[in-house]
Automatic annotation (TrEMBL):
Domain Ammonium transporter AmtB-like residue range list: 36-434
GO CC, one annotated term: plasma membrane
Family, similarity comment: Belongs to the ammonia transporter channel (TC 1.A.11.2) family.
Name the record gives this protein: Ammonium transporter AmtB-like domain-containing protein
Amino acid sequence: MSNFTELFDETFKIFPRNDSYALPGLYELEVGDAAFPLCICLMIFQMQTGFALIESGIVRPKNSVNIMMKNIADVCIGGLAFYIFGFGLAFGRGPFTTPFFGSGDFFPNTKFGDPLTCQVFTLLLYQMSYATTSNTIVSGAVAERVHFSAYCILTFLITILYSLGAGWMWGEHGWLRNLGAVDLSGAVIHIVGGAAGVTCTWFLGPRIDRYKKGREPLPMGNPVFVCIGLFILWWGWIAFNCGCSYGITGGKWHYAARAGVGTALASWGAGTFGIAYSAFLHKGKIDVFEVISGIICALVMINASCYLMPSYLALITGAISAFVSISLLPVLDKFHIDDPIGVFAVHWFGGVWGHLTVGLFSENPVPLTTTAGKEGLLMGGDYYFFLIQCVSSLSLTLLGLLGAYPIIWLTNKIVPLRLDPQSELLGCDIVEHGIVSDPNTGTEKIEDVTNNEFVSTRIADNLDNMKQRKRFGTEMNLNTVSEHL
């Protein structure tokens, strides 16, 4: 071979790349349009800052640095996984492509002079930013009790799982897309990520002291960070959904503006209702976590239908999002499934509700072919469109729930996922990164925070797989640890 590029192409020739004639039709961009989604990519990337601040503010101070590091891993390792495998599984058009996964375009690349270089790389960058968001959802679900090295493996594999769902919904081969399912701006991210997060947190069991005082949530480490994170997410999300038009020519700018207004109205409706509902639940006191959860749920919901619904319906469906998500927050706690950031109530429900709103309230966005001329059931359409949206929600939920289990099981076999109890009490910051971020770190004892009735036996089961037993120290004799679990 005369150079490395030729050697690389020869090595991977079994997986042909998208050529000019093979670019997924949904993303055929005019040259004048390409700058718009490229700029939106930068804003979507900045949303990681918002997610990181919200998660680090929700967890206790002794784990705040660790949650930030996990978000960095989401971007770096998740982005790498999407480049290597995810793009090809979602959008590849090789000979082994099926309705359930693509092939080809692994390690996507274009040659100099290819007239569609901009389009291919715009699609890659845009979808890469989607994939890393799905990982961030799982990061919050497993907060405060996972080895960082194990999480790095987990985030790589979860990216691949998400890519399958993205291919179902947006790839030219995708079976959901070919049935007529519609998701404008990424509710699939939250359905798959939320469902996978529930499986992961169930597998791990609750944090040691989560149910010591019943089902009351643990106090947030830094509510100010949570609020700042929301504001960063908020403006990024409006841009995120504006970008679903993939351009501004040919009337697309009308729908970009409509998407932005719909996103804003949904969040305003959710925030207003969330404040009132929280005050009602707590006799005049307003719970910060509940209000923010309601707003984020509405933002998740509007992803799927951001320019398809009339603006007043965006406001109403946003308020419904807040009501249901706030009501769902304590549900998993009844089963002692510890979901620190509410991925079930906020992300999974928001994504499912978003898909359903498409089937119920969509208008035909002439001249665009987004819905293939179909309208929502309550807007004069037929049952088929609504049923397909139900099928998409169910299938993506099952992908996340069932697909995450072998991933987390395999990861746990390679590197034990669960921290040992002593390390968990000390906090991930000092154990994993050598940083003392909480002056009270190390003052708790296992006897003070465990409760035989409520702490999941999965913690004890995981002890059999932990290689860190020698680190338990004198206060926690191995022979007596099980008595406290």
